[in-house]
Amino acid sequence: MLNEKREVFGRLVQCRTGHGYLAECYNKFVPSEDVDCPCGEPFQTREHLLCECSRYEDQRHILKEASRDLFLPELLGTKEGIAATAKFLEESGAFTKTGRTRLNPPLSTWEDKPDPRLRTAELAASPNICAPNPKALLLPATTRAP
Questions:
Q1: Which range marks the domain in which residue 32 is found?
Q2: Can you tell me whether residue 88 is helix, strand or coil?
Q3: pLDDT digits (tens, 9 = 90+) for 15-45
C-alpha cells in the first residue's frame, strides 16, 4: 500500500475515512455542493461508489477479487482488500472531484533534475558569461568600517 502513487494513496485514505468528494462530506462541510452522483443516484456515498455506481462497473471486478460480496470491512480493513481498493481507485478514478482518472504528467524525480553543481561549473568555465569582477564588489577604503 505504501508503494502506491501519492495521489492514489490520498484517495485511498479519503475512501477509508469517508472524508473526500462525497455527499456525506458535502452535506456537512460544503452544503452548496451537489450531493447527487453523476450516475443518477440521489446521494453519493462511499458504499455507492465502491459497490453500486454504474460508472465504475468495468473496474469493479478488481474489488470482487478481494471480496466477492463487496463487503466494506473486507475491502477497507484487510491487506488484500486495501490493495484491491487502491488498484480500483487508480484504474477507475473514483474518489476524485470529477470521478475520472487524472491525466497529470508524471512528477519529476531527483534523477530528472540537472545537478546544480555541474551548472555552476559550466558557468564558471564559460568565457561568454559576464560575471562581476569580485574586486568591483569591494567598498572603497574610505567607506570601510575600522
A1: 6-92
A2: helix
A3: 998 888 888 888 888 888 888 888 989 988 9
**Mean pLDDT (whole number) for 86-95:** 91
pTM score, two decimals?
0.65
**Interior angle at CA 137, CA 132 and CA 141, nearest 5:** 150
For 73-132, where are the E strands, in sequence order? none
CB 48 within 8 A of CB 41: yes
Q: CA 33, CA 41: separation in Å to the nearest integer? A: 15
d(CA 28, CA 45): 13
86 part of a folded domain: yes
Taking CA atoms, 82 is separated from 62, 65, 92, in Å, by 11, 12, 15
What size, in residues, is the chain? 146
* pLDDT at residue 69 in the model: 95
Residue 68 lies in a domain: yes
Ranking 8-17, 33-42, 96-105 by mean pLDDT, the lowest is 96-105
Count of beta carbons in the 10 Å neighbourhood of residue 99: 18
The pair phi, psi for residue 59, each rounded to 5°, is -105, -5
* Chain position carrying cell 486495501: 82
The yes-or-no verdict on residue 3 having pLDDT over 60 is: no
